[in-house]
Write a structure and sequence with these properties.
heterodimer; A: mainly alpha; 18 helices; 2 strands; B: mainly alpha; two-stranded antiparallel sheet; 77% helix
Chain lengths: 481, 493
């Protein structure tokens, strides 16, 4: 099959999966099989694209000519491939996890859940494959709307409130800032296609460039740059598999992916100084401030959400530096954080399913009752702190290297402080889980599918440390020649 | 036969009306109205292909050559409008039977269809004619039929709404005729093309300016240009469901056409937009419409009125595009006639289905609660058409928004871009109130399960599908709109 056809297939598989899930409404086992099969097929399709892309090929496909000279089109480059690999691979793992979670908690409306889940991944893949800003915007918005039913899954007043915040804080920035930014780019450059080296070179400069970069950075609220981060904690009303895959991987990574993409392929390295200098500091502020909030949150999912806000800004910071090393670091951190954070969310869901607990203060001694879960949690936590042998160490190392190379010593100090804060909000959980006496009713491990998925994600976190060739090769490809 | 197509366009529905009144059978009335709608569509498409192939068509009624006789003139712009009106009619008419049967007593049903045919004939005539006074005649035919249609609505309040509309509409028509009279005074002709040519030689400014003012206010009343929109929400909310759907997609749009016709052909030699602050005034009024009407919609409790207010706001998009007076803006304005037409048409048909199931009466937003479980397709259709009103990418509404933003950027009005996106954000708020009710709220007590009748659902789903189709495949809506916009900016000659 040609690479272009595979691109189309990557978009079709999740949609077909959603359709199959909807049709198999009354046959739960077949329905879950369909969602697993779709996930596996998507992984296969994305992986088979890896070879050509690594060999330097850039498959592309035009879909519709929307406006004269401006088409909906797909094209795959290393960064997109990396994001697609992470999203599809972790979809498969989450599909296993969801079976255990949704059945273990007896959740209502499971068909709608699985169907929207598949569509969300489809939208995320669309973001990864977008060949121009218009296509990116289309899938970016679609991702917001198809995840809304998942966020409001429980349908109660709290879910409605969370859903409103989620939607308002994602849609308002993308309409108010991102769309005008894209239109301005179009009127300046006459093209919206992503191109190595950017398309704005020589067309905008100085304060105007910084303003445009700000429209993008805040328009892409999925990157959760403060003060536009509040949708992410609001999204935590969703069932945990949603928080895990979408709000630790697909949605938030789509956000930072867009930021990197815009920085590298729309602006280009020449804009590092005048357009993006402020963004690095804004990201630095978010890293610290979100870590402090995480430190003070007792609700486990909320703590994880704020940790995500903080970690996303590592990517934004690295993208804003716009050096080859920093962009590679950004790409790596997208993958590394995805694996680490999904492990942590899986663990949070596992704890909730087995014991019904949601607060950090209730986790005393839980490691003795749920050794697998808390073992995986420890791996995820170490990865996010940046301790070897976990994936987070590699990406944080590369980002730090890039920061030092630019000579921004205060920024390096900020990253060091952030690492301490990360340790400060994760290690007490690990300590309490293993070294304090258990309290409350006795319970065992979570259902088997949950444990399998959890261990797979944790194993992936460690594997990325020992086998970083593929992500590294892709990350270098982004920064590339 | 082919050369008589322009006359046939108007004659088909015009002839159907008396037949319906003679026969009086509701079934026959519906069949005749549907046949007239389909027939008009065929004629309109034939005309459009002919115009695309060999340029504008001029047809002399009774073989009296223009400018002495009445001329029908079909150019790219009017061909576009004819297709739009006939297409909406063809989508609405087939579904009407069940809805009319549910809302209107048996002995009055034939009247609905007769008036509908007259209204259609009037609207098509307004577009097809090239004569200023003939246009007034058709305007009155369409308006009078519309007053009756609204008065036939199932609620008592419909009478008040129809009366309100009649007062405003009559003022509008009178202003129009005064404007035409002044122009006739100055040029001695009623043929629009001829009038444009002779206006060049007119040196006396004041009567022409007065004519312009009268025409603008008169047509503005008919197209619900802010702040002349007060009649619209009640009229749309109280009319029978099929009438709301038909009017929402056509009536104000045809008035927009008339405005364009005068601004760009008759007053064109005057360099209207350069010499007078026409653009600025239109932009200011449009922005006010987009923001104020959207805010009202956000707080509206009645679902039909909510979407009627949204229409006022969406008409603001159209007039904004005209006010921008550039290629992108005009393309947006014309494309939005289609884009908004299909979305609003779908919404009113679907609400008609809901009203049918829930029993007549006020249709509050709260009564849409839990509709996704009772009428899943209806809910999905409302959600998709609603997203098109917001202008989410992948829907027809986005296409308009994109061109409007480009047009505003081209004019160098950054604040206008902000106003456009702010208005679509407000649209997101009022649409989301509905979607949240559909999917997350509890159903009201005693709600019945079950979809709307199949014909209604098919019509609505077809329009919903068009909302998405036009969001991806833009060669029809944008293509035709660009062509018409090219034609306008080039001028008649």
């Amino acid at each position: 099959m040609s690479a272009a056809a595979l691109l189309a297939l990557c978009l079709t598989i999740p949609c077909a999966g959603a359709l199959a899930v909807a049709l198999l409404d009354r046959r739960p086992n077949l329905r879950e099989a369909a969602s697993l099969a779709a996930a596996a097929a998507l992984v296969a399709a994305v992986v088979s694209l890896a070879g050509p892309v690594l060999a330097g090929e850039r498959p592309s496909l035009r879909l519709f000519e929307l406006f004269p000279g401006l088409a909906l089109a797909l094209a795959l480059e290393p960064l997109g491939l990396l994001f697609a690999l992470v999203a599809s691979g972790l979809w498969f793992v989450s599909a296993i996890y969801s079976i255990g979670y949704m059945r273990g908690n007896d959740e209502p409306r499971q068909t709608r859940f699985y169907a929207c889940f598949a569509l969300s991944i489809g939208a995320a893949i669309g973001v990864a494959l977008a060949a121009n800003l218009l296509t990116l915007y289309l899938f970016y918005e679609a991702l917001t709307f198809v995840t809304w039913p998942l966020v409001t899954h429980h349908g109660d007043a709290e879910a409605r409130r969370g859903g409103r915040t989620y939607l308002a804080l994602l849609v308002a920035p993308s309409m108010l800032f991102l769309l005008p930014a894209i239109a301005i780019t179009w009127s300046l450059a006459g093209t919206l296609d992503f191109a190595p080296g950017g398309i704005l070179d020589g067309r905008v400069a100085g304060a105007a460039a910084a303003g445009l970069a700000a429209l993008y950075a805040f328009g892409i609220a999925k990157a959760a740059l403060m003060p536009l981060h509040r949708w992410l904690p609001a999204a935590m009303v969703a069932p945990t598999p949603v928080s895990a895959l979408l709000h630790a991987v697909a949605v938030v990574k789509a956000g930072v992916f867009c930021v990197v993409k815009v920085a590298v392929y729309v602006f280009g390295a020449g804009f590092a100084a005048d357009a993006f200098a402020w963004l690095a500091w804004a990201a630095g502020f978010t890293i610290l401030a979100a870590s402090v909030v995480a430190l003070r949150s007792d609700n486990l999912k909320r703590r994880l959400a704020y940790s995500t806000v903080s970690q996303l800004s590592y990517v934004v910071l690295a993208a804003a530096l716009l050096t080859p090393v920093s962009v590679a670091g950004a790409a790596l951190h997208i993958a590394a954080h995805a694996f680490g954070k999904i492990t942590l969310f899986f663990a949070a869901g596992s704890i909730y399913t087995a014991s019904g607990r949601t607060q950090v203060s209730q986790l005393d001694g839980i490691g003795r009752r749920m050794p697998w879960t808390m073992g995986a949690f420890t791996v995820g936590a170490l990865s996010l702190i940046g301790v070897p042998p976990c994936a987070g160490f590699v990406s944080k190392w590369v980002i730090l290297e890039a920061v030092l190379a630019t000579g921004l010593w205060p920024m390096a100090a900020l990253l060091a402080a952030s690492t301490l804060l990360n340790a400060g909000y994760f290690l007490p959980i690990v300590h309490a889980a293993f070294f304090r006496a258990p309290a409350g009713e006795a319970h065992g491990e979570a259902p088997l599918p949950i444990v399998i998925a959890l261990l797979a994600a944790a194993a992936g976190t460690i594997a990325l440390f020992f086998l970083p060739e593929l992500p590294l090769a892709l990350a270098r490809g982004v920064a590339g020649p | 036969m082919r050369e008589h197509l322009p006359a046939l366009q108007v004659l088909l529905p015009l002839a159907a009306a008396p037949l319906i009144v003679l026969a009086r059978s509701p079934r026959f009335a519906w069949l005749a109205a549907t046949a007239a709608s389909y027939g008009s569509l065929v004629v309109a498409v034939l005309l459009a292909t002919e115009v695309a192939a060999s340029g504008s068509i001029s047809y002399a009624i009774g073989s009296w050559p223009p400018p002495w006789g009445i001329e029908y003139r079909v150019d790219p712009l009017s061909a576009f409008m004819l297709v739009l009106v006939a297409l909406t009619a063809s989508l609405v008419a087939p579904y009407a039977e069940r809805s009319v049967a549910a809302e209107i007593p048996a002995d009055r049903r034939y009247l609905v269809y007769a008036m509908y045919c007259l209204c259609l004939a009037g609207l098509l005539g307004m577009v097809a004619t090239g004569d200023a006074f003939n246009l007034f005649v058709f305007l009155e035919i369409a308006s009078l039929a519309t007053y009756v249609l609204i008065a036939l609505g199932p609620r008592r309040k419909a009478l008040l709404a129809a009366y309100q509309y009649m007062l405003m509409g009559t003022v509008g028509a009178t202003f129009y005729v005064i404007g035409v009279g002044l122009l006739y005074l100055m040029t001695g002709t009623l043929n629009l093309a001829d009038m444009a040519a002779r206006l060049r030689e007119v040196t006396e400014l004041r009567p022409v300016l007065a004519a312009l003012a009268f025409l603008t206010v008169g047509i503005g009343l008919k197209l619900a240009l802010f702040p002349l929109h007060q009649w619209l929400p009640n009229a749309y909310a109280c009319a029978p469901s099929m009438v709301s759907a038909f009017l929402a997609a056509t009536a104000t749009k045809v008035s927009v056409y008339v405005l364009l016709r005068y601004y760009y052909t008759v007053f064109d030699p005057w360099a209207l937009f350069e010499r007078l602050p026409t653009g600025e005034v239109l932009i200011a009024l449009s922005v006010a419409a987009m923001l104020v009407a959207s805010v009202v919609a956000v707080y509206e409790q009645d679902a039909k009125r909510l979407f009627a207010w949204s229409s006022v706001a969406q008409i603001g998009y159209v007039t904004l595009g005209i006010g921008l007076d550039n290629q992108a803006g005009l393309t947006a304005a014309l494309a939005h006639l289609i884009n908004h037409g299909v979305a609003k048409g779908a919404i009113f048909v679907l609400l008609g289905g809901v009203a049918l199931r829930a029993g007549a009466g006020a249709l509050g937003v709260a009564s849409l609660g839990g509709l996704a479980a009772r009428m899943p397709l209806t809910a999905l259709g409302l959600a998709i058409a609603g997203l098109s009103l917001v202008g989410v990418p992948g829907t027809a509404g986005f296409v308009t928004k994109w061109y409007l933003v480009l047009g505003a950027l081209e004019r160098g009005h950054a604040w206008l871009v902000a106003a456009i996106v702010a208005s679509s954000l407000l649209a997101a708020v009022y649409v989301w109130r509905v979607i949240e009710a559909l999917y997350l709220r509890a159903a009201p007590a005693g709600a019945v399960r079950g979809e709307a009748p199949a014909p209604m659902l098919v019509a609505a789903m077809a329009m919903t599908a068009l909302c998405v189709y036009f969001g991806f495949e833009t060669s029809f809506n944008v293509g035709a709109a660009r062509e018409a916009a090219d034609f306008l900016t080039r001028g008649l000659r």
